[in-house]
Design a protein that fits this description.
Helix 1 packs across helix 2. With 147 residues, the protein is an all-alpha fold. The mean pLDDT is 78.
Length: 147
């Protein structure tokens, strides 16, 4: 038998195995190529296991991932340390707390919204009166100079 006859016989055999499909021979060919690829991958994995290359690649990958995680955690910790130090600086001293308690006892409305609004109104009136007093004194100065 020649090669052409062998191919024809193989194709007919594949078609007989799956008569409803016109691509039986193609399926048989793809099965053998997939099997060969799987064997090649297995041999590659075996070679990588024996030489330690696959283990080295995994260690490298995990080192990169965990390195990034650790860098992020380090940055986060630095931020928390800065925040803590700024909070420690803003902490009120015992003397200042005592004075605030004293002020609250003298004027309980000082720490309320209404009390703050009253203080703002008083400050605005005082500012307007001081501006008026400045211009009145300036007018009195000019009147005294040019008389």
């Amino acid at each position: 038998m020649s090669r052409e006859e062998d191919r024809q016989l193989g194709k007919e055999f594949a078609d007989e195995m799956d008569p409803g499909s016109a691509t039986g021979f193609d399926r048989f060919a793809s099965f053998t190529s997939e099997a060969a690829r799987a064997v090649g991958d297995s041999l590659g994995n075996l070679a990588g296991s024996l030489t330690g290359k696959s283990l080295e690649d995994r260690i490298q990958e995990y080192s990169e991932v965990y390195g990034e995680i650790l860098l992020h955690l380090n940055d986060r910790m630095d931020g928390l340390e800065k925040r803590q130090s700024s909070l420690e600086e803003a902490r009120l001293s015992a003397d200042l707390i005592g004075r605030l308690k004293e002020m609250r006892q003298k004027d309980p409305d000082f720490f309320t919204v209404e009390g703050q609004e009253r203080l703002r109104t008083d400050a605005k009136v005082a500012r307007l009166l001081s501006i008026f007093a400045f211009f009145a004194s300036l007018a009195a100065l000019f009147a005294a100079l040019f008389r």
